[in-house]
Amino acid sequence: MFTKIPYVIVTRVWITSSHWDIAKKPSYIYFNNFHGALIFSDQTSKIPGFKHFLKTIHPAKYPEDTFLKKFWEIAFECTYEQREGDEGLCSANASLDTLRLSYLDISMSDQSYTVYTAVYAVAWALHKMFSVRSEKESNILGFHPWKLHAFLKNIHFNNSAGKQVVLDAKNKSMAKYDILNYVTFRNDTEVLVKVGEFIPQATDGGEFTIQEKAVVWGTRHRKSRCSSCGPGFQKKSQEGKAVCCYDCVPCADRHISNQTDTNQCVKCPGDQYPNKERNQCLPKVVTFLAYEEPLGMALASTAACLSLLTALVLWVFVKHKNTPIVRANNRDLSYILLISLFFCFLCSLLFIGQPTAMNCLLRQATFAVMFTVALSSVLAKTIIVVLAFRATRPGSRSRKWMGTRAPISVVLFCTLIQVLLCAIWLLLSPPFPEADIHSDHEHNILGCNEGSLIAFYFVLGYMGVLALGSFTVAFLARNLPDTFNEAKFITFSMLVFCSVWVSFLPTYHSTKGKMMVAVEIFCILSSSTGLLSCIFIPKCYVILLQPHRNTKKPFKDNSSS
Q1: Mean pLDDT value across residues 340-345
Q2: N or C: which end of the chain has fewer CB within 10 A?
Q3: Using an 8 Å Cβ cutoff, are 80 and 73 in contact?
Q4: How far is residue 357's CA from residue 374's CA, in Å, rounded to a whole number?
Q5: Phi/psi of residue 443, each to 5°?
Q6: pLDDT-derived band of residue 7, with 50, 70 and 90 as boundaries?
Q7: Domain 294-560 part of CATH 1.20.1070.10
Q8: What is the pLDDT of residue 236?
Q9: Could you tell me if 243 and 101 are in contact, meaning their C-beta atoms sit under 8 angstroms apart?
Q10: Are strands 208-210 and 190-198 parallel, antiparallel or unpaired?
């Protein structure tokens, strides 16, 4: 009959039963002649969890359901098997919630609700039958199927929607119907509008109610009027309403629409970002810690000034190399430490400027090796302080370790280990320049990817071991006589060093882009300044401002005391 409808001129109103729902129509049938029909539809209630079930259902979740798999391929125009044609493979992230309402409305229909209630009634009757049998007999499986009918005639329960289901004296359910008006539009969309109710059990003439003014009869069409969605917005259908009813939703982050009534916003390329109106993609600004900006200029100037200060201290020590205070604290180790600190300050300049392959390859390795030379020199100094005190005892064997070979050997051995670690790092997984287009909304951040984070932390961890070793030895030797009491200054310098780098790790990981680079430069400058000021500034003060203390007499007096 449906196939003959396009050729029939309908001049009357169709009135259909609840089980002949013309809204759930095949796609090949023309239904405009049903415009204005009145449908008696069973009243439904919202079933908890039903929409969530439909939104999360997927063929991968129920692989044995062949119907669901076929429906999925038709609905999403995809395939689960590689075939020739335009259809692509089905996505694992597809959801029924993304289908057009004109194709699938995920709200429960009246037919589905009656089926759900019927299954619920059978389950209730089975439960009652099993309960009665278990009270009388131990074998609850020995029953005849026809006995279920007696329990079905006496159902009385509330379904999961909270609605009461009960049969009357004639074994009929208390049915309630909504009167729906089927309205079609000229753009081939339709909607069901509730215009009344029919409750057979009602009294006093209230069994049939209808709002006649709300009914659209088949002789006239309703016009759908919707305001346009401007650029920067997309149309989103309103759930449970006609397809022509939609909301204007702003485009999601990193998406734009530059046309009116766009169904789906377009994502900007990775190197672009949407403007505030989200109707145009703008190129991201390339950013890195440059010398020209105030932060880069301040850090570079500080590094240059501190390196000059270190060179000045080295000049003071070389000029006064034969004075007691310089000779008493191992002159060669002081030179090595000052030269390594000079390069530590300068290596921070490798972190400023646009990252390149060579820049990324050198900056962490240079910093690690220079700092290791400085820390191993400090460790050698602390060892020399302890050996020097023991060498003053009669018959001590520590005198043979007081030459220049022993401390230089400590520095070379400790540095060689760091060089091997850096060589393994650079050979297996070296750092390389990288553009980060995801961290910042409007900027394309250029930086260095450290390659292997494990190798990076091994390098930092080794420097931490040297610093802790120096601090431990210096702390134990802090109460030696004043003649050799450089250990106190080394203890303070190691405290500064450890404090800076312990606070560096969480701060480094909580920042992005050029601020992360600035944090590392600040830690390099701060820890190097701590070593320079705590170990050498007190000596320069004596050499330059109190030369009367830089004689052998104070040393002899301290030794005798």
Answers
A1: 94
A2: N
A3: yes
A4: 27
A5: -125, 145
A6: very low
A7: yes
A8: 77
A9: yes
A10: antiparallel
